[in-house]
Amino acid sequence: MTDATTAPSPAPARSSTMSVAEAVARRISVRAFRPDPVPDAVVRRVLGAAARAPSGGNLQPWHVDVVAGSAMARFRAMMVDVLAEYPRGEPDKEYHVYPPDLSSPYKERRFDVGETMYATIGIAREDKKARGAWYRRNADFFGAPLSLFVTVDRQMGPPQWADVGMFLQTVMLLLEAAGLGTCAQEYWANYPKAVTGFLGTPPERILFTGLAVGYPDEAHPSRAHRSNRVPLADFATFHD
Ligand SMILES: Cc1cc2nc3c(=O)[nH]c(=O)nc-3n(C[C@H](O)[C@H](O)[C@H](O)COP(=O)(O)O)c2cc1C
After folding, report:
1. Is any ligand 1 atom within 6 A of the Cβ of residue 43?
2. What is the spatial distance between Cα 62 and Cα 193, in angstroms, rounded to a whole number?
3. Which of 132, 142, 163, 229 has the fewest other C-beta atoms within 10 Å?
4. Upper half-sphere CA count for residue 170 (Cβ side, 13 Å)
5. Pocket flag, ligand 1, residue 227 (CB < 6 Å)
6. Per-residue pLDDT tens for 120-154?
7. Cα(185) to centroid of ligand 1, in Å?
8. In CATH, which of 3.40.630.10, 3.30.590.20, 1.20.1070.10, 3.40.109.10 is domain 30-98+141-225?
9. What predicted TM-score, i.e. pTM, was given to this entire model?
10. Tens digit of pLDDT for each residue in 165-185?
């Protein structure tokens, strides 16, 4: 990275009762899952508990679709055809995942996380084919047996999208505490028609993201990856 970074600390060992701090420290984006199903009761408990997340005016602007089991098999089968037709995403995307002209220091941070991941899993910078194949694993939810899809009413603006983000992080931390792994996937914003068509999302709602959920494949080399963070002084200003 061009800006100084705080060296990421290794993930702490998992304890039987996990504190919030521990869950925050342990959560990383999981990009290799075991196929073992996620218990329905755990998903229901976590979503119910995460609904305690705050939101401006208590609008609770999050909507979640849970896709697992035979629905997940149908979704994967649908994606075979969709990917054949639109390997680079549907022509009509609904929002920019990143600003079109992402400026410094953000574009370097984005570059850095890709580079550190490829270094961890042993893919060379010039190996475009292997990089493409790794990226396309998004379409398979990195092997996860379950995905959440999060949609938002189109009338909502940045404050409510931030609320949805808080909800999503709460979901991820509670799943972490339950021994599960997650990877948020804005990748699915490349396929808004396919995803919302599958889910039957009403037209007044926009797809924000997917969230792959499952038990991490601890043996996969990507499990060793820890993304960098900039130091506190780079994002916090203290006035006293
Ligand atoms: C809303 C959101 C969408 C994301 N979309 C993707 C995605 O499509 N594919 C992916 O591999 N990672 C995705 N990520 C994971 C980020 O790359 C990751 O959170 C970031 O690099 C920090 O790493 P960490 O989650 O391991 O701490 C997403 C994260 C968020 C919060």
Report:
1. no
2. 19
3. 132
4. 18
5. yes
6. 999 999 999 999 999 999 999 999 999 999 999 99
7. 6
8. 3.40.109.10
9. 0.94
10. 999 999 999 999 999 999 999
Q: Where are the domains of the chain?
A: 30-98+141-225
Residue 115 CA from chain centroid, whole number: 18
C-alpha–C-alpha distance, residues 24 and 39, integer Å: 22
Residue nearest to atom 9 of ligand 1 (CA): 185
Which residue, among 171, 177, 144, has the nearest Cα to 69 in the 3D structure?
Answer: 144
Quick one: which H or E segment has residue 205?
strand 205-214
Question: Hunting for tokens 């991490």 — which residue is that?
Answer: 216
Determine the Cα–Cα distance for residues 102 and 43; give it in Å rounded to an integer: 35
Helix H, strand E, coil C: the string for 62-127 is CEEEEEEHHHHHHHHHHHHHHHHHCCCCCCCCCCCCCCCCCCCCHHHHHHHHHHHHHHHHCCCCCC
51 in contact with ligand 1, CB cutoff 6 A? no
Judge whether 27 and 182 are in contact, CB under 8 Å. yes
CA angle 108, 22, 54 (to 5 degrees): 80
- DSSP of 38-53: PPHHHHHHHHHHHTTS
CA of 215 to the centre of ligand 1 (A): 17
Residue 197 DSSP code = H
- Rounded to whole angstroms, the Cα distance separating 89 from 184 reads 18
- Is the CB of residue 186 below 6 angstroms from any atom belonging to ligand 1? yes
pLDDT of residue 15: 63
Q: For residue 165, give the ligand 1 atom closest to its CA.
A: 1
